[in-house]
């Protein structure tokens, strides 16, 4: 399910939204096309030039490209395959949110929006199109975003775990999505978000609560998928990451000083088994982005834990087969 928390932050009266999602596993019947916006030559992106050379320092491992900035602590690749998966996941998430880019009640004319860990930049580009009144800033540790973007959008390169460079009370909205494998110190990150928000501003956290469960009582769980989550969860926990982070967002936001936290939880099927048309489409895109991303999600963490690349590939082949098996009717929460 998808959980969204809008939060007001004490003296600043800021709001926050935290979103989690549950995987289900329904049948395909809905819109499987992309709603992504395409942009031509509206304006070049701008980057923090002082760190750009370091930011473009990549390395290759088991055929995938990774970012070297931050000591290689980021376990996801930043190559074209991963960026395509991000765009696919974005489309799935807009279906979860019923066509919306966010749940925070921003009104029609927000002035400044910050997209944390912008990735391919697709959310920031669509937000810039949706809110022509706003200056949109998308920042990420990797400069992999398009060079030509809407005129009210800039991309910047920075490490979100370092000190943020924006002033106090700079933004109406801070958006943070799919970052459980990128942030180690969430209290520190949320403290910085709190400081950058204007009085009455909103923060929205969105994430899958990664614990697939049978959608119907008495249904079995897929064994390899269960094993994958168990193995991956233990490895990531040793490195400081939490696969069940989404269920903790609300309390983390309250602890950071935000007020009026709203949590929204929605089902996210694995596959096309649901009878509901929209859920079938969500389930289709969710499984497709997972199959595309399995190697990127898993390869670095398992090989650095002692697996050979060949062993990982055999394991992933079994996972893909299980994901294609219509007998398994499971879901996550978002």
Topology (SSEs and partners):
Layout: E1 8-9, E2 15-23, H1 52-55, E3 58-61, E4 64-67, H2 80-96, E5 112-116, H3 122-130, E6 135-140, E7 153-157, E8 171-177, H4 186-196, E9 197-206, E10 213-214, H5 223-239, H6 249-255, E11 258-269, H7 277-303, H8 309-323, E12 330-333
Helix pairs in contact: 2-7, 7-8
How is this structure best summarized?
The protein has 334 residues and is α/β, with parallel strands linked by helices. It has helices spanning 52-55, 80-96, 122-130, 186-196, 223-239, 249-255, 277-303, 309-323; strands spanning 8-9, 15-23, 58-61, 64-67, 112-116, 135-140, 153-157, 171-177, 197-206, 213-214, 258-269, 330-333. The chain has one domain: 3-Layer(aba) Sandwich (Rossmann fold).
Structure description:
It is built from eight helices and twelve strands. It has one domain (8-333): Rossmann fold (3-Layer(aba) Sandwich). Helix 7 (277-303) packs antiparallel against helix 8. The chain starts with 7 loop residues before the first strand and ends with a strand. Mean pLDDT is 82; it is low at 1-15 and 22-53. The longest helix has 27 residues, at 277-303. The strands form two sheets. Strands 1, 2, 5, 6, 7, 8, 9, 10, 11 and 12 form a ten-stranded mixed beta sheet that branches. It has a two-stranded antiparallel ribbon with strand order 3-4. With 334 residues, it is of the alpha/beta class. This is S-adenosyl-L-methionine-dependent methyltransferase. It comes from Aureobasidium pullulans (Black yeast). Residues 1-12 have a biased composition (Basic and acidic residues). Residues 32-46 have a biased composition (Polar residues). Residues 1-46 are annotated as: Disordered.
